[in-house]
Design brief:
single chain, 101 residues, alpha+beta, Glutaredoxin, four-stranded mixed sheet, 17% strand
Length: 101
């Protein structure tokens, strides 16, 4: 199910509506002109199951948000921010068709 949801848009964020780090990563992408698909797990009836599956994908570290770009796992906020800072996020977004400039 995670793979299907992750492939539905160029950028997919699994989030919680009350999480400040989730808000920060959503703002990062929106500020770059990217329109991510956002799945708020605390509002989804299958949210707990999805969160457990995401935790397994991350190797047991169950930190939200979890970001996929082009259907591929980027990771939690630490990986997203590191990619943004080191300059690898924008090319990844362009390759996925989420960013044109």
């Amino acid at each position: 199910m995670i793979e299907r949801l992750a492939a539905e848009n160029a950028v997919v964020i699994f989030s919680q509506s009350t999480c400040c780090m989730c808000h920060a990563v959503k703002q990062l992408f929106c500020g770059m002109g990217v329109s991510p698909a956002v799945h708020e797990l605390d509002l989804d009836p299958l949210g707990e199951e999805l969160e457990r599956a995401l935790s397994r994908l991350l190797g047991g570290g169950g930190a939200l948000p979890v970001v996929f770009v082009g259907g591929k796992l980027v990771g939690a906020i630490d990986r997203v921010m590191a990619s943004h800072i080191n300059g690898t996020l924008v090319p990844l977004l362009k390759e996925a068709g989420a960013l044109w400039l």
